[in-house]
Specification:
There is one protein chain. The protein is built from 3 helices and 8 strands; from the N terminus they run E-E-E-E-H-E-H-H-E-E-E. It is an alpha+beta fold. The protein has one domain: Ribonuclease Z/Hydroxyacylglutathione hydrolase-like (Metallo-beta-lactamase, Chain A, 4-Layer Sandwich), CATH 3.60.15.10. It has an 8-stranded mixed β-sheet. The longest helix has 11 residues. The radius of gyration is 14 Å and the shape is globular. The relative contact order is 0.15. The N terminus and C terminus are likely disordered.
Length: about 110
């Protein structure tokens, strides 16, 4: 299912144009969006993780790609619709962080580096 065919409350998976790059489409009316998923030998890298309420649906789609865990979550910014699932991802041992033009913040390390 791609982002255009997803209906309210659906979570679907569509392969993007690049090799091994996938889009997880979460459609819930207001608050729907997309997550990029890139499986690697070490685990899955996600770009954004949506709201905390979407954690189970997102992980179901990740598991359909690979049996490997989510290794890293890269947040485009810290609004809840992009980074709201970080606490649940961190509890599941994924490193999560955001990249700004000046700093890299690693939630898993509990520190901010210049």
């Amino acid at each position: 299912m791609d982002a255009e065919s997803a209906t309210a409350g659906d979570t679907g998976l569509a392969e993007a144009s690049a090799d091994d790059l996938y889009v997880i489409a979460v459609s819930k009316g207001v608050g729907g969006g997309n997550i990029a998923a890139y499986p690697t030998d070490e685990g899955v890298i996600l770009v954004d993780d949506m709201f905390g309420r979407d954690y189970a649906a997102v992980m179901e789609q990740v598991k359909s790609l690979t049996g490997k865990p989510v290794k890293y979550v890269l947040n485009t910014h810290q609004h809840d619709d992009h980074a709201g699932g970080n606490a649940k991802m961190l509890a599941a041992s994924a490193g999560a962080g955001t990249r700004s033009s000046r700093r890299w913040r690693r939630s898993s390390a509990g520190r901010t580096e210049d």
